[in-house]
UniProtKB/TrEMBL annotation:
The name this protein goes by in its record: 6-phosphogluconate dehydrogenase C-terminal domain-containing protein
PANTHER family per record: 6-PHOSPHOGLUCONATE DEHYDROGENASE
Organism of origin: Sphingobacterium puteale
Keywords: Gluconate utilization, Oxidoreductase
GO biological process: D-gluconate metabolic process; pentose-phosphate shunt
Matching Gene3D superfamilies: 6-Phosphogluconate Dehydrogenase, domain 3
Keyword Magnesium: no
UniProt domain 6-phosphogluconate dehydrogenase C-terminal: residue ranges: 1-77
Amino acid sequence: MKREKRLIHRRQRLREVLKDAIANGIPVSGYVNALSYFDAYRPKKLPTNIIQAQRDYFGAHTYERIDQESIFHTLWD
């Protein structure tokens, strides 16, 4: 747990540093992108589930839902 708290503190500190750098016109795009990448993997439910819908739409693949136990296919016409 100690490691997790350090990571949370450092992430918050990095946000402050990046905010100050951006406010002062210092290019930090690599750091901003790295933080954004890290943020994308933190939630328990990732926004990548849209890929399942796109695959179903273009290739009649199926998809799963989090609110019901089953495999679904939608007629997108």
